[in-house]
Amino acid sequence: MNQELRFNYATDYFAKKEVSFTDKNKFTLGIIDCDGCFTNTGLLISDQCDFTIKCAVFEGEGKLVFKTRKEFTGFILKQLEDSFEFINLANNLHADIKCLDRVETYDYPPYAVCEALLNTIIHRDYNFSGSTIINIYSNRIEFISLGGLVKGLTIQDILHGASQTRNTIIANFFYRLRLVESYGTGLQRILETYNDKKEQHTIEPLPASFIVTLPKINNVEKQNFSKDDSDESKILSLFTQNKYITRKNIQTLLKCSSFPARIIINKLVSENKIKIVGKRRSTKYIIADS
């Protein structure tokens, strides 16, 4: 086990989240053991992480023609952010004009993409050295992570909300950084995101891998909803009865975890629609005009 690990990206990430990253915290998180040596978890958190995520965009619905490909390395949270950004480049935003209202929808629901991506990192089997694979076709995205279902669980158990975390330390790490709210709810949230869609996502557990497929929705159906059904409008409507709102309010409203909630919050802040008040756990959001 390499004991010359660097944590430059992790140090910056923890500072940005205002979470301590001292030796004591590293021990609590399982990054170092009682002898002060780096653990396998430490390797995943380090800049020298051996595991990678490979993303590819294909022409059409098969694998005959590559359009582009990219491999992401380093700290697993850097891989998470880089992969999400890569997928976003292929997640086109479409707009329809309905009764003078501009209705915008993505090819793939951003919350479902976030949850599927988090699932591939948190629940994969790190005893395998291969890469996590993300394949983007003209009509779907496949998320392929190594490691099948945890022994004793079935797909029926998963779909009904049962959960058994394979990597408890990794899951706790993501929880401490407020990237997930609880363990084992990601697939349930994907299911809810596609509830009203004609095409449904698929979950395929294999002996040594786990595949989540998200179908494109914009080329399948024209959605019949008004402007008030957009996520941004839903969030802004909260201010009609509240002077301020919290991230928890947004997660409850959109039925999503903290990671996708933060994405839309950052978008609203960058567009000067809402403002940030307070820091850390006391952070609240107010309407920009108030």
Task: Briefly summarize what is shown.
By secondary structure, this protein is α+β, with helices and mostly antiparallel strands. Strands 2-1-5-6-8-7 form a six-stranded mixed beta sheet, with helices on one face. The protein has a three-stranded antiparallel beta sheet with strand order 9-11-10. Strands 3-4 form a two-stranded antiparallel sheet. It is built from eleven helices and eleven strands.
Explain what you see.
This protein has 11 helices and 11 strands. With 290 residues, it is an alpha+beta fold. The protein folds into 2 domains: 49-215, Heat Shock Protein 90; 231-287, Arc Repressor Mutant, subunit A (Orthogonal Bundle). A 6-stranded mixed beta sheet has the order 2-1-5-6-8-7, covered by helices on one side. A 3-stranded antiparallel beta sheet has the order 9-11-10. A hairpin with a 2-residue loop joins strand 3 (93-98) and strand 4 (101-106).
Question: Helices and strands in order, then pairings?
Answer:
Elements: H1 8-16, H2 23-28, H3 40-45, E1 53-58, E2 66-72, H4 76-90, E3 93-98, E4 101-106, H5 110-122, E5 132-136, E6 140-146, H6 155-159, H7 168-176, H8 186-193, E7 202-205, E8 209-215, H9 231-237, E9 244-245, H10 247-254, H11 258-270, E10 274-277, E11 284-287
Parallel strand pairs: 1-5
Antiparallel strand pairs: 1-2, 3-4, 5-6, 6-8, 7-8, 9-11, 10-11
